[in-house]
Amino acid sequence: MSIFKGFFYLIIVILWTDCGTPKSASQTITCDTSGTIVDMTGLDGCRWMLVTDGGSKLLPQKWPKDFEPKDNLAVKFHFTEVKDVASICMAEDKIVTVDCIKPLAGKPAKPTCYNTVKPMEVEWMRIAMTRNGTKVIEKYPYLDKYAYLFKGVNLDNDLYDCQGTLLCSYREIEQNACSQRLVNLGKGVVIWRGR
Fold first, then answer.
1. What is the pLDDT of residues 108-129, one digit of tens each?
2. Count of the separate structural domains present in the chain
3. Which domain holds residue 56?
4. Is 99 left (phi over 0), alpha (psi -120 to 50) or beta?
5. CATH number, residue 95
6. Which run of H or E residues covers position 1?
């Protein structure tokens, strides 16, 4: 009989520790996706977009309470895709509900991607213009955004992405990987010409 009692108590202890207290749904959600909040006000019907580090564009239908989105804020977040809904924005890959979100302290936000025809209004462009004595700036389609070619004095040319990252440089009289890259971008549009 004592073996039976011992076995019975062992079963009760196992069941007691295994069941435990149930966790609420908010305790099990972890902010496991990295990205940046981007203000897309320039597009019709758009405002805030979460752009993952992998490049997916997520349109939040709902944010957590007490969270205020800010442009260019690097964040970790968790989301649930919302099915069978449409948006006016139509620039997103998915419409989502943001279940949790945390700003990433210490991680700089990605620089803003500028779509401009006024380079004097963009700080990194003004700086780049002084580097090579820019005479002409041309704008090209690049990936799903833009690239800018700064044509300088002495035929020195610098190609930048829309965030101000130098992609490559070349001299106009030379053929190299950078000049070939420019050919692959297609036809550019002159957005600025110096005097």
1. 666 788 999 999 998 889 988 9
2. 2
3. 27-103
4. alpha
5. 2.40.50.500
6. none
